[in-house]
């Protein structure tokens, strides 16, 4: 099967974004992948790099103009660029929280706002926002990351209601632990409160163990392709842990779900 859609994927330097760009290009899509420094990014066959920083409005506008100049349209936007942060909520500075939201939420919103006028004009489009199971579940010591993904979920559902009148639909992809450098090398809040140190150490070790045994990003990339090119539905959870967690959150009482989560993160 071959697709000729013009697709923008943000954050293709590594991880999920890179795996998604590779799969979409292999299907015949014309793929533009955003990177902050094209000279330092390893090439991807069939993918044109666009230098773009989702935290920089002017950079986004230049990047989208480049795509329109070269391809004349944008059929799919995949928002996969993101950052994470580990630490107790009390330890996290407002500045750190703002930096995280500037990428995970406002960066996504900036890019959507730059793409939507072109999708409205052509009367079609698909926006795929890479969220997380933490978009519908809590995770100890990842409060701000979870909050940003909860925000992405709310934005996506509302936006879908607003833009479907123009032939545009919005979808979410909600992976669980995935073996990427983003999770393995998660930055920690700069401030330290000794009272949290023991539990934070336990959670950090649990996250590392779970990431090390987690599947490679190619599985999530396959789900992104389906969300981008397949029949529309709002939520896409990769098979395995993510799909199981979605079912547990929906059908099980809150108590057992919370107990299972604490066990996953090594907490009594």
How would you describe the overall organization of this protein?
The protein is of the alpha/beta class. The chain has one domain: NAD(P)-binding Rossmann-like Domain (Rossmann fold), CATH 3.40.50.720. The chain has 10 helices and 7 strands. β1, α1 and β2 form a beta-alpha-beta unit. The longest helix is centred in the middle third of the chain and has 21 residues.
Provide a short characterization of the protein structure.
This protein has a single domain, classed as 3-Layer(aba) Sandwich (Rossmann fold), CATH 3.40.50.720.
Let me know the CATH homologous superfamily.
Answer: NAD(P)-binding Rossmann-like Domain
Give the ordered list of helices and strands: EHEEHEHHEHEHHHEHH
| Overall tally of domains | 1
The name of the CATH architecture is 3-Layer(aba) Sandwich
Q: Structural class, from secondary structure content? A: alpha/beta
Please bin the fraction of helical residues: 40-55%
Which consecutive residue ranges, at least 5 long each, have pLDDT under 50?
A: none
Query: Gap between N and C termini, in Å?
Result: 50 Å
Cα radius of gyration in angstroms = 18 Å
**CATH top level label:** Alpha Beta
Number of strands: 7
Which strands sit side by side, in order, in the main sheet?
3-2-1-4-5-6-7
What CATH calls the topology is: Rossmann fold
Distinct helical segment count? 10
Secondary structure blueprint with pairings:
Elements: E1 6-9, H1 15-26, E2 30-35, E3 47-51, H2 57-71, E4 76-79, H3 94-104, H4 106-122, E5 125-130, H5 143-163, E6 168-173, H6 181-184, H7 197-212, H8 218-229, E7 235-236, H9 241-251, H10 254-264
Parallel strand pairs: 1-2, 1-4, 2-3, 4-5, 5-6, 6-7
Helix pairs in contact: 1-8, 2-4, 3-5
């Amino acid at each position: 099967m071959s697709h000729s859609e013009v697709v923008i994927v943000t954050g293709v330097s590594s991880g999920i974004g890179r795996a998604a760009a590779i799969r979409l290009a292999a299907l015949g899509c014309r793929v533009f992948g955003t990177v902050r420094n094209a000279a330092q990014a390893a090439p991807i066959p069939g993918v044109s790099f666009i230098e773009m920083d989702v935290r920089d409005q002017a950079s986004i506008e230049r990047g989208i103009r480049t795509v329109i100049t070269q391809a004349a349209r944008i059929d799919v936007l995949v928002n996969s660029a993101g950052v994470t942060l580990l630490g107790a909520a009390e330890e996290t500075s407002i500045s750190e929280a703002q930096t995280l939201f500037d990428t995970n939420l406002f960066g996504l919103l900036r890019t959507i706002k730059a793409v939507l006028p072109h999708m409205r004009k052509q009367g079609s489009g698909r926006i795929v926002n890479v969220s997380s199971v933490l978009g519908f579940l809590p995770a100890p010591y990842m409060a701000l990351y979870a909050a940003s993904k909860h925000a992405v979920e709310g934005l996506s559902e509302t936006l879908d209601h607003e833009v479907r009148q123009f032939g545009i639909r919005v979808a979410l992809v909600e992976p669980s632990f995935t073996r990427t450098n983003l999770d393995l090398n998660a930055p920690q809040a700069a401030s330290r409160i000794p009272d949290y140190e023991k539990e934070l150490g336990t959670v950090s070790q649990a996250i590392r163990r779970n990431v090390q045994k987690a599947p490679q990003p190619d599985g999530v990339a396959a789900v992104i392709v389906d969300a981008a090119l397949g029949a529309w539905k709002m939520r896409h959870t990769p098979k395995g842990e993510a799909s199981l967690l979605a079912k547990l959150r929906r059908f099980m009482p809150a108590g057992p779900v919370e107990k299972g989560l604490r066990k996953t993160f090594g907490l009594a």
